[in-house]
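Weekly modeling sync, notes
Attendees: AB, CL, MP (scribe)

Item 1: holo prediction request
CL wants a bound-state model with fe (ii) ion before deciding which constructs to order. AB pointed out that an apo prediction alone won't tell us much about the pocket. Agreed to run with the ligand included and paste results into these notes for async review.

Input as submitted:
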Amino acid sequence: MGGALRWNPGPRDEWMARMDRIDRLDPMETGLRHRVKRAVRQMSDQHRNIRAIHGSIRGALERGGVQDARAALDRLQSAMDAHFTLEDEVFFPALHGLRPEFADSLEALSREHAGFSEVLRKLIADLEASGVESFQSGFDVYAEALAAHERREEQIVATLVESIVASG
Ligand SMILES: [Fe+2]
Ligand SMILES: [Fe+2]
């Protein structure tokens, strides 16, 4: 299995093309479906942005730029907060509204968010306290776990979108 940096973002363009067909579907659910469509795009863009920031952190540390790594970690923390808020407060509730049978999967993903925020907070403290080497091994574990989480999320979204389009 490839590392987080080589992770293929997945068939986003395919879902977006399918989501475009929503415009021609059941007008009763159009508002909710449009919210989902907008949130799918935002979620996918944020996943890509988070991966880019991971790359900046690794790059900074390879160059010995600890200050740059700290600055990128601050950006990562803000990006993660915004991302989890979008998923927990907008995206997952909208998906749940369309497909209540996905409740368990969505709740499991949501529970993991708090864990990732806590791990990231500890990693940042670790960079201050224990230095780059200790930080890097912890960061790799965190990044791999987050990549697996995002992959599951994108698979669930793809399945949901497929079922929404098929039912239209
Ligand atoms: Fe998530
Ligand atoms: Fe996510």
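Recorded for review: The pocket of fe (ii) ion (ligand 2) is lined by residues 43, 47, 83, 87, 150, 153 (CB under 6 Å).
Action items: CL to compare against the apo run; MP to circulate these notes.
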